[in-house]
Amino acid sequence: MKRIAAVDCGTNSLRLLVSDVGDGDIRQVTRTMEIIRLGEGVDETGRISPEAIERARVVLQNYTDHMTRENVRAVRMVATSASRDAENREEFFDMTENVLSKVQPGARAEVIDGTEEAKLSFIGAVKDLPPTDDPILVIDLGGGSTEFIVGKQSGEILGAYSTRMGCVRLTERFLHTQPPTPDEIAEAREYVRGELAKVKESVPVGQATVYVGCAGTFTTLSAIAQGLEHYDEQAIHMSTLRTEGLKLVTQDLLAQTGAQRAMLPVMHQGRADVIGGGCIVVEEIIDFMAREAGLTQITISEHDILDGIVAGLAKEVQ
């Protein structure tokens, strides 16, 4: 068995997955996440702030120390929405090379486009679903973007599109009070509906009969809907939520302040102030998919782009 690692840097979080691979088998060793808010202000300024780069460096250094202790032999790091949008992204990439080279010489974060992000997320999200030949829709709701991918469990992708909407982007652009005002929510909803119209033009969402939501907004909503007393990955992974119940959770969260949300036992402190934006995206997706495909329930996956990266890296090292 060889030990490899995947690192995903999104708009809101920096995440690490360490796995053992060999003989076609992949076994998780470590999965961890820290909120770094790399995309803070990027939507407005077009640049990653020095403070955000430093927050990323500190966490990435901790991850690198962990990978060194765990004898990781190969690592791939991808950066998504915030670094795609930033004028000064090379400053961030240079920092990642300085840190990651301690694990693998020359390793450096690479920016991937929305299409590759969507495909990697799909691979990770569907691998634990019961076998099916039906088309699957995966929705990966991040901080700065949300990916929609329809494909088959075999890996065939029927359509993919990356939208410019996510919990951080919506919060910074529209939700300036906590809880947000009706006018702020209405403006955010109008923006999301415009993005969803682009999805309808690009992805055959109406063909899907299985629906999977992944990333932090969806997994946190599942934990709340289940009434968990602590964040339990096993209870959340492959849980199925009825959409009417899910909307009750999102409506309740939207009516709360960030401080009230932070008191929930399953809420990561770095997510409390932006999950309202994610709730609006989820509500609009539910209504959109109910019209397009009769959506009544959605499965929540703890696995996503990290697992897709590991699967690809495993093929290279074996």
Automatic annotation (TrEMBL):
Q: Which GO terms describe its molecular function?
A: pyrophosphatase activity
Domain annotation Ppx/GppA phosphatase N-terminal: ranges = 18-309
Domain of life from the UniProt record: Bacteria
Return the InterPro entries for the record. Answer: ATPase_NBD (IPR043129), GppA/Ppx_hydrolase (IPR050273), Ppx_GppA_N (IPR003695)
Alphabetized Pfam families for the sequence: Ppx-GppA
Q: Where is the signal peptide?
A: none
Q: Tell me which PANTHER family the record gives.
A: EXOPOLYPHOSPHATASE, EXOPOLYPHOSPHATASE 2
- Under what name is this protein listed? Ppx/GppA phosphatase N-terminal domain-containing protein
